[in-house]
Amino acid sequence: MALQPNEIGEIVQGFDNPAGLQSNGLHIQGQKFMLLRADDRSIYGRHDAEGVICVRTKQTVLIAHYPPTVQAGEATKIVEQLADYLIGVQY
């Protein structure tokens, strides 16, 4: 998955100030996702039956897309656990 610089910037800015994501949604590869949740650690978005999970660690932002065949809760649990691991090893 390749994101455009403006899409990355939109997500990174959303961790500290979700107002733009709340009013405009977030964009991944040109596709608009409705914002479900945004805080200083995690951003969740949904488009029809698919979704995106973004989690900020100390040095990176994980961005995961899940298709309609995957339950949102399962995808969220896996990505959040990976983020917990990375945070635990100071990444």
UniProtKB/TrEMBL annotation:
Gene designation per UniProt: PFY1_2
Xref: CDD domains: PROF (cd00148)
Cleavable signal peptide: none
A cellular component term, taken from the record's GO annotations: cell cortex
GO molecular-function terms, A-Z: actin monomer binding
Transmembrane segment boundaries: none
UniProt-annotated location(s): Cytoplasm, Cytoskeleton
Matches recorded under SUPFAM superfamilies: Profilin (actin-binding protein) (SSF55770)
Pfam family, one: Profilin
UniProt keyword Cytoplasm present: yes
Presence of the UniProt keyword rRNA-binding in the record: no
Family in the record: Belongs to the profilin family.
Keywords for the protein's UniProt record, in alphabetical order: Actin-binding, Cytoplasm, Cytoskeleton
Database matches in InterPro entries: PFN, PFN_euk, PFN_sf
Lineage of origin: Eukaryota, Fungi, Dikarya, Ascomycota, Saccharomycotina
Coarse class of the protein's main subcellular location: cytoplasm
Protein name: Profilin
